[in-house]
């Protein structure tokens, strides 16, 4: 492993997995399982193990977006992986795309988008939230995701570049829709995410005023299965309602 590389250290304790995200350095990493000399990882590879001074064994992994999702500091309600999956699947986001995102919140969606796209520009109206998101993004090792503090309702009028995808997760998304043709490349996608149908109906009304193609509003229901000696069935604890996703292509 290299100096500065971000790593996930995983261990098992009383039948439960405990995990930590840190980076390879010449410093010590402390947890309730003891101290690890992080420079020891310079001699190791992904999948190898390292021991704390208390003899606790950790497996070394390279963190991926679902790991950053679990470990990111949260300011508001982030978009869940199931909904992110729909956004990626229906837009076909790729490595050449530039994305405009708002509001940043904890930066979860911006990070997932940034792990695939060329560049993500994300606007967050609250200074303190923007700072937390920047820290989450930095910890995820992404240098192509920029968080600017600003109100997207005003900022959208000032933008002098075009994007391939625009993702909106704000209460006022409907008011931004009329500006989308001036900032979205032809064939690009607008994606909005709203927890309520009333907001979604306003968004659909605004979209109907513009010549979009392939407009759809979807809700993604996640249903995990539970396996036990007694039988197999849908899990009784589940991810409930999250939000409605509207996707429109210009
Ligand atoms: C639900 S959170 C977004 C979560 C984010 N998509 C994520 O995955 O972490 C909504 C965020 O939008 C911000 N916001 C609300 N209105 C805004 C606006 N007009 N411009 C920019 N940010 C806004 C809020 O401060 C809040 O942080």
Structural class from helices and strands?
alpha/beta
For the record, what is the CATH homologous superfamily label of the largest domain? Answer: Vaccinia Virus protein VP39
Question: Hetero groups bound?
Answer: S-adenosylmethionine
The CATH architecture of the largest domain would be 3-Layer(aba) Sandwich
Q: Cα distance, first to last residue?
A: 44 Å
Mean pLDDT: 96
**Sheet with most strands: strand arrangement:** 9-8-7-10-11-15-12
> For the record, what CATH class of the largest domain applies?
Alpha Beta
How large a portion of the residues is in β-strands, by DSSP E? 25-35%
Radius of gyration: 21 Å
β-strand number: 15
Low-confidence stretches: none
| Count of alpha and pi helical runs | 8
**How do the helices and strands follow one another from N- to C-terminus?**
EEEEEEHHEHEHEHEHHEHEEEE
Query: Can you tell me the overall shape?
Result: globular
Largest beta-sheet characterization: 7 strands, mixed
Oligomer class: single chain
InterPro entries: SAM-dependent_MTases_sf, TRM61_C, tRNA_MeTrfase_Gcd14
Domain tRNA (adenine(58)-N(1))-methyltransferase catalytic subunit TRM61 C-terminal: 79-225
Protein name: tRNA (Adenine57-N1/adenine58-N1)-methyltransferase
GO cellular component, one term: tRNA (m1A) methyltransferase complex
């Amino acid at each position: 492993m290299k100096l500065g590389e971000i790593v996930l250290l995983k261990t098992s304790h009383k039948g439960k997995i405990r995990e930590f995200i840190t980076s390879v350095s010449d410093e010590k990493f402390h947890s309730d399982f003891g101290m690890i000399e992080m420079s020891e990882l310079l001699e190791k590879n992904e999948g190898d193990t390292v021991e704390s001074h208390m003899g606790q064994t950790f497996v070394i992994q390279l963190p991926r977006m679902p790991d950053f999702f679990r470990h990111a500091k949260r300011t508001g309600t982030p978009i869940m992986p199931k909904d992110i999956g729909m956004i990626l699947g229906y837009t076909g986001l790729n490595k050449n795309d530039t994305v405009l995102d708002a509001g940043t919140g904890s930066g979860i969606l911006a990070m997932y988008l940034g792990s695939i796209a060329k560049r993500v520009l994300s606007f967050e109206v609250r200074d303190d939230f923007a700072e937390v998101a920047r820290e989450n993004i930095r910890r995820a090792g992404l240098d192509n995701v920029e968080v600017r503090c600003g109100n997207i309702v005003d900022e959208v009028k000032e933008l002098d570049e075009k994007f391939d995808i625009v993702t909106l997760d704000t209460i006022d998304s409907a008011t931004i829709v009329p500006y989308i043709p001036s900032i979205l490349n032809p064939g690009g996608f607008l994606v909005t995410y709203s927890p309520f149908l009333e907001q979604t109906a306003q968004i659909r009304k605004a979209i109907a005023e513009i010549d979009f193609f392939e407009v759809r509003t979807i809700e993604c229901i996640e249903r995990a299965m539970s396996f036990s000696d007694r039988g197999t069935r849908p899990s009784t604890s589940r991810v409930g309602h999250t939000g409605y996703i509207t996707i429109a292509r210009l």
